[in-house]
Amino acid sequence: MTAETRSTVRLLLGWTPVDIAVADSNQTVLQYLRDQPQLKGSKEGCAEGDCGACTVVVGALKDGAIRYSAVNACILFLPAMDGKQILSVEQVADTELHPVQQALVELHGSQCGYCTPGIVNSLLCLNLNGGAADRQAIDDALIGNLCRCTGYGPIIEAAEKACSTELSAAWKTRIAAAQKQLLSWAADDQALALETRNGPYLAPKTPDQLAAALDAHPAATLVAGATDVGLWVTKLGRSLNPLISVAEVADLQSMRLTDSHLEIGAAVTYSEAHQALSEISESLGELVRRIGSRQVRNSGTIGGNIANGSPIGDMPPALIAMGASLVLRSRAGRREIPLQDFFIEYGKQDLRPGEFVGRVLVPRKLDTFRCYKVSKRFDQDITAVLGAFNIAIENGAVVSARIAYGGMAGVPARAVGCEAALTGKPWNMKTIETAKVALDADFKPMTDMRASAAYRTLAARNLLERFYLETQNPAVALELASRNHMKGLVDG
Fold it and tell me: According to the model, what pLDDT value does residue 486 have?
């Protein structure tokens, strides 16, 4: 320990400041809460951030004010709450029930009650952040809460009633006091450095500190929102030691616009980047909206989705088709590479010793671009096939083509044969049929629980044809979007 570091986690538990000497760096927020007297409301259902029974509200400073988010407590490590506020369902009511709770009671939105605390917290966030009471906003808020006991009818009715209620004066006063406390902690630039029974947990605040920590602990696991890494503990039973968090590095939390690119820090969450990505492409924005649940997007980061190298990660194929690049950093300096070159083979990425993903550079100007996700559920499901298309068409012919797929190989990759079959050719159905044949040779997909190899091959072909049809007639795009949504299929 040095004067520049701190050895306890400090947070607001409800409205009370606490200092915690963390004994286990892998302890989750849910485990911590359920170890406390009279804080048993949050439940463990799936232990992987899917069911929403563990949902709690986390308050964190954003531009000097508290921004509240619903997160999955079952996979989020307790040290990540340093400098933040946790609201479990027990802290929602004051001398009387919160309007969300009252509406759920009056409209019979709870039956067994196991998942109800998570539903309360998801709707509380919608209320705290001034969310509209329209159906789309409510649906988005509840996507990560999978209780089916009563059906969603009375829950949605309760949400419409509660979320049209203005925040009370008492809540505004409490939030102002919480904000003051978090601001006082934020003024302290000491980085968190814990020594626990299963090894150190470090939360550096600058890129240089992060690079130094990686040099000192080359075998460390990097963690941001833990939406993937958390499952290594809860599902695989691993002990992660050491752990280095990138979530407190200010530079990695920022986004910047240049004339040509949107630069996204590796610790920026999906929720934070959603609006900016939507402004580049409506199709890309819709893809982001369908990644995981609101809880997952509030914690998960784009940099983490890339760095873990998943062959079915939603963002990499779209970003590859867009021509995105990565900035990799280490004590040795800075390196920029095309994103497509980062993925070498399954489980292997182009990261040198001591390097970490610093920023993602997303081009702002695209040609004709669409991305489509195929999954068994429309919302909150893992991709079976994801196709992304960025094609320049001039005078009825293809001038250039960037096409990438996920779920078709051990890594997200470009369909180089398909691109070659399109480039320089007339943009017509005959060319598409030729490109489909070339696409068959680009990938040899596997069969797993999400889809068979034959299904993936057919879906990849059909997404190319769909892209073509949409460029020919925008009305086709609207019809396909409506039809696929009703069937619970995908539509980017």
Answer: 44
